[in-house]
Amino acid sequence: KILVGLNKNFFSAVRALRVLSQTLLSSSTQLSLSSSTQLSLSSPICSEDLYAEIKCGSPDNTTTNGSFRSVTWSPLMKIRFDHIAHNSNLNYNQLSGGIPSTLGQLQHLKYLDLSSNLLTGSIPSSLTKLQNLKYLDLSSNDLDGTIPSNLKGLQSLRRLHLSENKLTGPIPDSIRYCQNLTAIYAYRNFLSGTINESLGKLSSLQSLFLYENSLSGRIPKELGKLSALRYLKRYLDGNNLHGALPKELGKLTKLRFLHLTANNFTGTIPTTYAKLTNLEVLKHLGQCSAVGGNYLSGPIPGYIEKWVNLTVLGLIGNNFEGNLPAKTFSLTKLRKLRVSDVNNPGISFPKEVIPEPNSLVSVVLRNCNINGPIPEYIGKWPQLSYLDLSFNNLSGSIPETFRNLTELFLTRNMLTGLPSWITDPKKSNINRTTV
């Protein structure tokens, strides 16, 4: 067997190594890369006994960026990567088996992406010793067990991706030591317990995604200290959270996306949320903030008109009462509006003409106990194509201006007459309707 050593005495200026010769390395069992800072593995040269604890079974000569058709971890090699600082191109490789604990010896590693493979077992605690690691992506595998309890060694970490695995247990308290974290993606796992208030100490955190887990308890008020937070997009959707919404979240003035769908929150929306003027989405549709599927009550906040950057607003399946502020329709960036199941004694559309919205494409006001006639001015909104006013107490005729819509739903009202243009494609743009 041939021992291949590539160190600073042999290649003093080498900062990156690309393995290109099968002839040179096909029979090597030990490879020392003592000063290289980057390693790129090209698939055409893959051999049975090559790479750092990686065994390549069926190299695909047509792929690029180190992508292999079938790859499994192998303990056959003792390959040293003393100064490797960047480990890329290991995602989408069908890597299987457990993550080798020896990866924790790569003390200069800054980037590790093992996402979208077939990895199983638990996350080795040795990875928490990688003090220079800035990016760790283990998402979309079949990993189980808990998140390592001691994360204190990952003080350089900026982005943590653990989503779409089978991880269980709580978010460890030691997350507080990862002060440089800007993003945490841990959605679609089986994480349980309460939301650790230590998250509130991550002053650099901008994105937090914890949806579709089994988290329970209340939202800790400490999250209101995350002054850099911009994305609570689908943040807590589909967990088992309950209690009141903390007023401290109103301090998150940079927040753009807020999702709280499908939990068990109660009480009213705090008045402090009026300060969230950078909100772009309030609901569970694409870019939005969601409060649907909870048990929130009280009046629909009148300060919605202050959310001037809102593009999506959804207040669905709660116990809100009262009227939707008329100025909501005049928010210049609002594209999608959906309000349903509002508890009130009966409301009607404003008689005065609402200024034409610039961006509204879709309006859903279902089961809001709206009575009286439908105003014609709604059909004159220039971008509107989808309108659903089902399950109300609307009366009178269907406005002629609605012929410009493409989808119209008016089920379970008290409307009279059926205009001929509704079913005539030559007279209207409507292609889907129920009346």
Automatic annotation (TrEMBL):
Membrane-topology annotation of the record: Single-pass membrane protein
Entry keywords, A to Z: Glycoprotein, Leucine-rich repeat, Membrane, Repeat, Signal, Transmembrane, Transmembrane helix
Subcellular location: Membrane
Protein name: Disease resistance R13L4/SHOC-2-like LRR domain-containing protein
PANTHER family: OS01G0750400 PROTEIN, RECEPTOR-LIKE PROTEIN KINASE 2
InterPro entries for the chain: Leu-rich_rpt, Leu-rich_rpt_typical-subtyp, LRR_dom_sf, LRR_R13L4/SHOC2-like, RLP_Defense
Species, as recorded: Populus alba
GO cellular component, one term: membrane
Residue ranges constituting the Disease resistance R13L4/SHOC-2-like LRR domain according to the UniProt record: 102-230
